[in-house]
Amino acid sequence: MLPKQTLSAMIAIIGVLFCSWAGAEDRHFLMNAQTMPTGEAARWSLMTNPQKYGYFQPVEISLPSAGHVSFYQGSPQSPVLTQAPSQAGMMVGHTYRVRISGMPEYPGVELYPTIELLDRLHPPEGEAENFPIPIELTREEIQIVLQERMVTKVVYLEQPEFAVPFEQGAQIHVEDLPVKTNLIQAADERGRPMAIVRIGGRIPDPMSPNDEFYSRSPIKISPAR
Amino acid sequence: MRLYFLALGTLLIVCVGCAHDGQQLLETNKNRYYAPPAAALQHPGPMVGGPGPGVMQVGHQVPGPPMGAMGAAPGGAPFVCPPGTGGAVVTTSQVRFLGPEGMHVGWQIGGGFAENQLMAPGRYNFRQAATYRLKFSNIPGREGLVVYPSLHIYPTHPTTAAYLEHNALPLRVNDEDLDQVETNNFVTKVIYLPDAKYQELAIAGVEELVSTRLAPGLDPVTEADRRGTIMAVLRMGNMDLEMPGQPGQLGEVRGANGEIVQTQYADGEKGQHIAPVPVGSHEGIGRGGVPSDMMVGTSGGPGQPAYDPISGVNGVPQYGMPYVGTPIGLPGPPHIPLGRPAGLQSITLRNTTDYQVSGPVEDMLIDVRHEPGIRMPEPVKYIQYTEKHPGYQASDLSVPAWAQQ
């Protein structure tokens, strides 16, 4: 039989061990989609994984019903006007500014969201164009933007084990999170972050057409599908 | 009895120790990591700008493993770090004048005003880190009232860069503000992006603090700075900057025959649009009030070009001027007799002022502290990689979803 003092010491050691286990550290996320300047997360992603450089990832942009999506090929003076849903190849690690216009629900409204491409998909050989990253702008998001507010979305590739347990409808599942939440962390916990979409109400200044508003990132416009 | 206290202490450790292990007395939240500020994260590597050891410059080749066929750069170009589109690029803030609707907005252009450049609601891109003098006129319901507010556009901060790239700053002058101005009060409106903990709505948006709606003694700029990051400040009073006959740059100028001479004038209603000229610039000290990376330490000051006095250039007196300078700013004695080459070779100035000033500080200590402090996890030193493969028997056939008809 153990002496009483030895028993007490054992209980104390178990208590300390339990405390150490309960205080296990969380994962750390340097990047934050809401508080980092546009393009920084993609830049970090590319620097930590340079193999992604040079890959044009198809991205499909769709609107609530119909409208136009304009892409810029190196110059703000020569936009390429396409009919939504539109698809273009965007280089991983770069940020793109597109113009949304001609929406029948919002006559006269033009929006200029940016798309920051963090990662790429790995489709079967020759099937890349059939597996674009889908970016959907919903009515709710456009309404928020028209109220002088800003919307930040992180598009992620779902992890099969944590997939939403219901059939996906015509629209992509969107989850609204509190503003304090780090969206990149939330997306990483659910899968693999692919792109950050930021939408606001700023439009280019007609008095200074050469301002820094437009992106000059390399792009491949896909033929109409 | 001693055994009783030992058992009691053990029970206390087991029950309470998990919540308070002693470290929490010093740290509020031990299990959280805190990344460096966003400004530091913009400089991967040593987290400061360069050039310097380990600093990754935009456009420089980044070391990394050789690229495979899938990752090869188009045209065989070397991998270069793409420039970030925020922070270092955006230099304008778009201000949207929301109202009162129909109000005309003009701004100062050096020695005059450009009138009617915008009509509310309207927007304009102002260059950052500068203060502009605006002119509000034709205010509906306020006949004859002209207000000359100043608009201070703050430089982009890493936390506001994404917002400023995508949104305009809403600026609305309402009846309450105009009433305050007309009753000789001073109105300060601060537009800021609140920190996440001060944001009430789920969607990011700016907030506005107005001096007249704060408790007496509260400075709206200080209060906004405490709650978030300031992007613009509008200061508005009833000072008339275009009074006839006033001295100064904006005063009325009359010609030889008594006619009014417009030194600089533009009217937007006649299609004359001129960019505003800042009345105060803050660009010399770099972005966000921090000296820029490349700084030349000369008498020109931080961020300013070097001041190398050359006789006859940029205000430096011509060689042979009859008066000489002195270290205290007073003109020295003339070279007399005038009209001859300068012959004075020495000046003696004696300061006989009584003074009692403390001696210079020899050693200075500045304590800098982040709250909360920076805490990052230890680098990865072990990775276990496991791939799970499904097992198939001879009669099983697996067809990828994309290949199914």
Protein model, in words:
The complex is a heterodimer of chains A (225) and B (405). Chain A has 225 residues and is an alpha+beta fold. Chain A has one domain (29-221). In chain A, 20% of the residues lie in helices and 25% in strands. Chain A is built from four helices and eleven strands; from the N terminus they run ααββββββββαβαββ. Chain A has helices at residues 4-22, 40-48, 139-146, 183-190, and strands at 56-62, 68-72, 79-83, 86-91, 95-97, 99-101, 114-117, 133-136, 151-158, 191-199, 219-221. Chain A is globular. Residues 7-25 of chain A have low confidence and may be disordered. Chain B is α+β, with helices and mostly antiparallel strands and 405 residues long. Chain B has a domain at 92-281. Chain B is 11% helix and 18% strand. Chain B has five helices and 14 strands. Chain B has helices at 2-16, 38-41, 158-166, 175-182, 220-227; strands spanning 92-99, 104-108, 113-119, 122-127, 130-137, 150-153, 169-172, 187-194, 207-210, 228-236, 253-254, 260-261, 265-267, 280-281. In chain B, strands 2, 3, 5, 6, 8, 9, 10, 13 and 14 form a nine-stranded mixed beta sheet that branches. Chain B has a three-stranded mixed beta sheet with strand order 4-1-7, with no helix packed on it. Chain B has a two-stranded antiparallel ribbon with strand order 11-12. In chain B, strand 2 and strand 3 form a beta hairpin. Classes of the chains: A alpha+beta (225), B alpha+beta (405). At the A-B interface, helix 1 and helix 2 of A face helix 1, strand 1, strand 4 and helix 3 of B.
